[in-house]
Specification:
The chain has 424 residues and is of the alpha/beta class. It has eleven helices and 20 strands. Helix 4 runs antiparallel to helix 5. It is globular, with a radius of gyration of 23 Å. The chain starts with a strand and ends with a helix.
Amino acid sequence: MERVKYLILGAGPAGLSLANCLKQKGEESFLLLEKEKEAGGLCRSMDVDGAPLDIGGGHFLDVRRPEVNRFLFGFMPEEEWNRYERDSKISFGERYIEQDSGGHGNRYIDHPFEANIWQMKPEKQKEYLESIAEAGCNKGEEMPERFVDWIYWKLGKRIAEDYMLPYNEKMFGKDLNILGTYWLEKLPDVSYEETRKSCMEKKPYGYQPGHAQFYYPKKYGYGELWLRMQKAVGERIATGAAVKKLDALRRRVVCADGREYEAERIVTTIPWAEWEEIIGMPDGFSQNVRKLKHSSTQIEYVPEKMETKAHWIYYPEREISYHRILVRHNFCPNGKGYWTETNKERVEPDKGRFRYMNEYAYPLNTADKPQIMKELLEQVRCREIYGLGRWGEHEHYNSDLVVERAMKLAEELLGSENKAVKRI
């Protein structure tokens, strides 16, 4: 039985950031457990066809959190990164979109959709403008509770049916009404006046999406950053350690190979559904864990070069299996081709290309999730167990936000420890 002050479960961005924060602040009694052979979680990279490929899908370092970036640049200096202005597009079909300057057909408009309707043919612009004017949020109608109704209310019939609903079905599954609307409320209303103005002036208006500017390594895949953070942890990480059983009262963990660990505090970044057994929790805890939903995504490499400058492209068309592609040669060093992201339910027969299935890709924001996670996280905190990151908190966090939350949790844990010492 190995005993430490802090036991961290999962060496993805959340676990690695917390471990390195503890180490930098002088804490030595911690251990990081990871079931895979190397760290990185969903942000790992592999060499495929002579260049890095991010096996967890498209992951980039956003520029919007400078404190996070300063921390990460301590492991991989800023000069080892390229900085990009986001170029993302939506596939939408030539019958909707104006020809390019050379008179050739075009099937893409820029993302976000509502800010770039001006790139469509004039008759289509008129149809979308009329639909936006009729959106419930623009007519003062009461906000609905069901996901599908909310999309119509927020965006209007045309954007809902032509883009948002088919895209979300492809990404999360056909039954969209299991999803809540709480996570969509940050989306701004689609302003009729702003959209009309953009159509007249032929330029976008409105908000900038996430990753409007981002970093990507010059010589490596995104996974290189997390490998360096693994190296910085040194001997305080155990790989090939798949945790299976948790005794919450004793704060004791048992791995699949029989190894056991005990801690004063446990921080878990792994999916709650991964545990085979959790004991020492109140009645109803296990039932709540089973209610948590997630989607799985397959990454598939396609070697053909695309004639586009886009970094990634969204595909709402139902007849296309994947929902997004990442155009590797436009941001990845020496990269060729692109990779697709496809919901597990829509995967097509194997064509002999490189594939990787991520069983845990996206937490689903089901209607009952906020209450489930509020109760779950409060219950484990009472036992000095903390959920952190995309899976520990069951939130669709990007890696930069995960790092930020890990940094704050490290301060909280060490701060409470110092307060306890002072009281003594």
